[in-house]
Write a structure and sequence with these properties.
The chain is of the alpha/beta class and 408 residues long. The protein has 3 domains: 207 residues, Rossmann fold; 78 residues, Helicase, Ruva Protein, domain 3; 70 residues, Arc Repressor Mutant, subunit A (Orthogonal Bundle), CATH 1.10.10. Helix content is 52%, strand content 9%. The chain contains 16 helices and 10 strands. The strands form 3 sheets. The chain has a 5-stranded parallel beta sheet with strand order 2-3-4-1-5, sandwiched between helices. A 3-stranded antiparallel beta sheet has the order 8-10-9. The protein has a two-stranded parallel ribbon with strand order 6-7. Helix 3 packs parallel to helix 5 and helix 10 runs parallel beside helix 12. The radius of gyration is 25 Å and the shape is globular.
């Protein structure tokens, strides 16, 4: 079929032609906006799930809804930055938001106050002046300048929320990859949103990330469980999985045979990203206006190769030999969450010896802890990929320190 008309989008965070199976969350977000516009409180949300289930796509849809409602949207992809870099990023993003809410020439007292608090927030990055404020707004005194990230970000979001409220608008903070926020940064967001909720200001924080986020948020602030909901999204099932595959093709005048859809759903297990990848490869081999089961079978090899070469491989390439061995040992045990002691036994070591490796893999976003003492892959089907990529479990030798020479 014509490559230009291929309706499937196997790109990171790219919105598919048809978003299915997320109606309840989209409705919840719409309600959240509507209630805050009426100065009524509602829990914000942090969406969690494995890689490839559409968390980033969902955040993008939330952004579209917020913009259509007249809200200012601040989109952030969290990274492992220190607090100073985090301040700089937040200053740049929130400064732009304030200027979009109201041009400087039209600032009221609230708008100018928000700008001054932002200046104070930025100036406190480095008392030596390493980071200088890029606008000529004098910093506020006593707000945004405490030197404590939580207190300072709270001052900023309250001031920004008041300025937005005066304009009969709101600010939506959409933060992807929340698990990469430092503890102090996550704590600052939670504390700041808690205060804006208490003030009934039109500011929301909606995040997305890997499944450990609920635990991280609870550890950062005990009241996070009451401030946010933590909806979990996973693979699509039943009619939703079938629609994700067939509806984009239908728009282009192409239909799938029922047994072709059955096989495609079986191969992809309903994971949204996998559906897009397989659909893309099927489109390349099919002809005419109908997709047959044989087309899906023919496309499967290219589909597997594409996933192995990009979606899976890019994650494994960052691993050290010992980290690779840990992942391979987990794969040998199966796709389910694995007990730390069982993985250590596969490696011929004690749990305490490989505990740091396990922690590193969690920090890298390759594993998460569904319950105490267990770890699981953050990527669907990663166990099968590990068996293909590393056919044999090889245990790296432990580098032992040479004994110190005796003191004569």
């Amino acid at each position: 079929m014509d490559s230009i008309s291929n309706p499937y989008t196997p790109n990171a965070g790219a919105a598919p032609e048809v978003v299915v199976g997320r109606d309840a969350l989209i409705e919840a977000f719409t309600v959240l906006l509507g209630r805050l516009e009426r100065h009524r409180t509602e829990q914000s949300m942090i969406v969690t799930g494995l890689r490839g289930v559409g968390k980033t796509v969902l955040l993008g849809r939330f952004g579209e809804i917020a913009r259509a409602a007249g809200w200012e949207v601040v989109e952030i992809e969290a990274s492992k930055h220190d607090d100073a870099r985090f301040r700089q990023t937040m200053f740049s993003q929130l400064k732009a938001a304030l200027l979009h809410l109201s041009p400087r020439a039209r600032w009221t007292a609230r708008g100018r106050r928000a700008a001054e608090v932002l200046s104070a927030f930025a100036v406190s990055v480095d008392q030596k002046g390493t980071f200088s404020v890029s606008w000529d707004v004098p910093p506020a005194e006593g707000q945004g300048d405490h030197g404590d990230l939580s207190m300072d970000l709270t001052d900023v979001l309250v001031a920004l929320g008041e300025a937005a409220d005066e304009q009969h608008r709101g600010v939506a903070l959409l933060v992807d990859e929340v698990q990469f926020l430092g503890r102090a940064q996550l704590e600052a967001f939670i504390q700041a949103i808690h205060k804006t909720v208490q003030r009934k200001l039109p500011v929301i924080f909606v995040g997305s990330g890997l499944p450990q986020i609920a635990e991280l948020a609870g550890d950062a602030k005990s009241y996070a469980e009451r401030l946010f909901t933590f909806p979990v999204i996973g693979s699509l099932t039943g009619a939703d999985a079938r629609a994700a595959l067939t509806e984009p093709a239908r728009v282009e005048g192409v239909a799938f045979d029922d047994d072709a859809v059955d096989l495609a759903v079986e191969i992809t297990q309903g994971y949204p990203y996998f559906i897009q990848e397989l659909g893309h490869e099927v489109w390349a081999v099919a002809s005419g206006d109908r997709v047959h089961r044989s087309d899906v079978e023919l496309a499967r090899e290219a589909y597997d190769a594409k996933l192995d070469g990009s979606f899976f491989r890019v994650r494994l390439d960052r691993a050290t030999p010992l980290q690779t061995a840990y992942l391979r040992a987990m794969a040998e045990l199966g796709p389910e969450p694995q007990k730390a002691s069982d993985v250590a036994r596969m490696l011929g070591r004690e749990s305490t010896q490989v505990g740091p490796t396990r922690a590193e893999l969690i920090d890298m976003g390759l594993l998460y802890t569904p319950e105490h003492g267990y770890a699981a892959f953050t990527v669907p089907d990663f166990d099968e990929f590990m068996k293909r990529a590393v056919p044999e479990l090889t245990i790296p030798e432990v580098k032992r320190k040479k004994p110190e020479p005796p003191i004569v």
